[in-house]
């Protein structure tokens, strides 16, 4: 994974690159991890659910500008991430 200001390039297991827009990042003291939430640039939106949003734990590597995405595995982490995403969307609505 490479960093940009608000965009990252995700390289999948087949070597395909996907440009993604970072929605936000945050750290959790409870889990001792950093998290990143993003969506694919130009991705297809579902009218009912909106764009597909991806969430991963993130292990930055400042030396080469790349980092490692780590799948979220526990239900407790998913609940916390979902709560943060809902708060993010609520704040976005308040700004409009």
From TrEMBL:
Q: Which InterPro entries match?
A: UPF0473
- One Pfam match: DUF1292
State the similarity comment.
Belongs to the UPF0473 family.
Provide the protein name.
Answer: UPF0473 protein P5G62_001580
Higher taxonomy = Bacteria, Bacillati, Bacillota, Bacilli, Bacillales
């Amino acid at each position: 994974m490479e960093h940009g200001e608000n965009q990252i390039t995700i390289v999948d297991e087949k070597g395909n690159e996907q440009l993604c827009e970072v929605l936000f990042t945050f750290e959790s003291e409870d889990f001792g991890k950093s998290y990143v939430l993003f969506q694919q640039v130009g991705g297809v939106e579902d009218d009912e659910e909106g764009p597909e949003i991806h969430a991963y734990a993130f292990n930055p590597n400042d030396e080469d500008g790349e980092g490692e995405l780590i799948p979220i595995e526990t239900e407790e982490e998913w609940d916390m991430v979902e709560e943060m995403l809902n708060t993010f969307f609520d704040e976005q609505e308040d700004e409009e």
